[in-house]
Amino acid sequence: MKTVLITGCSSGYGLETARHFLAQGWNVIATMRTPQAGILPHCDRLRVLPLDVTRPESIDAAFASAGPIDALVNNAGIGAIGALEATSMSKTRQLFETNTFGVIAMTQAVVPQFRKRMSGVIVNVTSSVTLAPMPLASVYTASKMAIEGFTGSLEHELRAFNVRVKLVEPGYGPTTRFTQNTDVRLEDAIPEPYAPFAAPILAAFARPELTTTEADVADAVWRAANDDSGRLRYPAGADAIALAT
């Protein structure tokens, strides 16, 4: 029976992905910064561990407790929307610490065991903002685009050790929008001079023609983790698939 470690399981894509892997019979190690009781089904194949991907000591403790795993899903992330002019450098660094450096640190921690076993898969969850330019998301996009390049390069690097590396690119879902997990108020993120430009964009976010669900992303992660082909990218959701084609 295979084991997957998934980051960012307290809500949204990570939570649904943990449920999906459990339903498919895998052992699941669901991690979150503050473990919550009752959000995942009671199951003897489930373990919930605390993990903050921005803290090296937390990463070390999580992997020590987890033991050998067959798959790592780097899902944990934070969002941000707003004009670059109004995005502080502290917010920029916060985004990169989680969305970029956290993914790199988790991956670096798991590679030795995968390399030695000559097996394993790493699935990095990015965003459809990497598929086409999206206004009012420049810093968030930069943090995700970095992982796109990182993953593509790493796939070549680890192929010789039979370690697979994959990208899942979720589209936009009103219930899991990329503005979640952010402490910046919209009125602060979009100053008054940008309001006329931002208004139609925000209206489109509120009434998207195509959307992505948590189930779409969980299914894409599942397919990526179980695909032995050389495929790298897995758009998730109707809008992401439309952008990718």
Structural commentary:
- The protein is an alpha/beta fold.
- It has a single domain, classed as NAD(P)-binding Rossmann-like Domain (Rossmann fold).
- It has eight helices and seven strands; from the N terminus they run βαββαβαβαβαααβα.
- A seven-stranded parallel beta sheet has the order 3-2-1-4-5-6-7, with helices on both faces.
- Strand 4, helix 3 and strand 5 form a beta-alpha-beta unit.
- The longest helix is centred in the middle third of the chain and has 29 residues.
- It is globular.
- The model has no long low-confidence stretch (mean pLDDT 93).
Task: Briefly summarize what is shown.
44% of the residues lie in helices and 14% in strands. The protein has 8 helices and 7 strands, in the order E-H-E-E-H-E-H-E-H-E-H-H-H-E-H.
Topology:
Elements: E1 3-6, H1 12-23, E2 27-32, E3 46-50, H2 56-66, E4 71-74, H3 89-117, E5 121-125, H4 138-159, E6 164-170, H5 186-189, H6 195-206, H7 214-225, E7 233-236, H8 238-244
Relevant terms:
single chain, 245 residues, alpha/beta, Rossmann fold, globular
CATH top level is Alpha Beta
- Alpha-carbon Rg, integer: 18 Å
Helix content: 40-55%
SS strand fraction: 5-15%
Strand order of the largest sheet: 3-2-1-4-5-6-7
What's the end-to-end separation, in Å?
35 Å
CATH architecture identity: 3-Layer(aba) Sandwich
Oligomeric grouping of the chains: single chain
Number of domains: 1
Element-by-element helix/strand order: EHEEHEHEHEHHHEH
Could you name the CATH homologous superfamily? NAD(P)-binding Rossmann-like Domain
Protein structure class = alpha/beta
3D shape: globular
Counting H and I runs of at least 4 residues, what is the number of helices?
A: 8
Name the poorly predicted regions. Answer: none
The average pLDDT score comes to 93
Number of strands: 7
The profile of the biggest β sheet is:
7 strands, parallel
